[in-house]
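INTERNAL AUDIT FORM
Audit reference: QA-55
Scope: verify that the stored structure record matches its stored sequence.
Auditor: D.O.
Record contents follow.
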Amino acid sequence: MASSSSGDAETLGPAGESQSLIPGLPDDVAAVILASLPYFHQARLRATCRSWNAFLAPRRLLPLRRRLRLPPRHLLCLFPEDPSLSPPYLFDPAAAAWAPLPRLPCSPHLYGLSNFVPVSLGPHLYVLGGSHFDARSYPIGIPTASAAAHRLDLTAPPSLLAWHRLPDMLSPRGSFACTPVPCGDDGGGGIIVAGGGSRHCMFPSEGSRMSSVEWYDVDSGEWKMGEGLPRYRAGCVGFLVRRGEEEEFWVMGGYGDYRTVSGVVPADVYYRDAVVLGMRSGKWREVGDMWEEGERRKLGSVVVVGGEDGQTPGIFMLDRNDILRYDFALNRWLKESSLRRKVPADKPCGFIAMNGELYVLTNATHSTDGSDPRRLPKKRLALEIQAYNPDKRKWRFLTSNTPFHQPIHFKTAVACTIGL
């Protein structure tokens, strides 16, 4: 490690001179220190000198972090609304810092994108599908599903950071199950999407359903059709589980059928079961009901913790003010813990897994300094986080001011994590 770092440092200085990263320290030690800097400080510190500018370049720093076997930093990527109108933001809970990302390319005909799915694969962030309105369609005001796919490379220089349009999915869809498949030694990484429909957040009781499954191959840049779900399923959640030698793609919950209330108003019939796709066999198998009739109406927000190095991940669900853990052997959701600060039933919240912890996100307001009696104290929007560690079974609380001008509407906001 020392020899490679020293070689890197020597090439960073002027021709014929040797320039160390941090004077007085060996270059291998300095490399570990600089590689451990929070993501949001790297761009600011690159202006310190030419050696730091070259060393902290994302395309160079991220591979170095993997070689040094530093723990990955997972950041929260939050989409408060349509990403073509309002930029998404990265949030680092360790540094309590926010950084804006570019907006999605804007179309003069399409607007009101919702129910899209963001997913990360390596240093790349993807935005897939969704439901939007098309000003060219008739009748106007009827949402349609989107097949668009965009990718953002976070290793690109800040001046070149922009979304790139990928080939469209074979079937337009929103509110679908999705999971990344990491690259192996021989490549082959990709993204699996399953189910979905055309439902829009403005019309919560309408929209189509579908059962098709697609696979995006990162190497070829093409979408390929896979074995479809056993039945129509939208509003579902998907994740990857390695059990022994077999990798499985799990699809839980969602809705497919519907019934009518008083013979007029359609109401969704939510599934209580799950279906599993064997990645090697290519066949689906059905898992029975995960809870009894009347125990709960539908599946809550589901996140996955762990699963690296072939270990079985922990599957957690937020059900009102309780966190439940899925037991694979019993096919049941068992209570893990309860929120320390209860969230009212009419107040939506976010639920995300990051850095081995479960984050429950809610809006909060903080009053600014009111020491001047001539001015009324102003309230600033803030994000309140209740973080739960399943291994230590302990809670901690974080609060961070947000860059948004209005509270985050977690019922329609979309979030994912990305490891850098």
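Auditor finding: record pair retrieved intact. The two ends are 20 Å apart (CA to CA).
Action required: none
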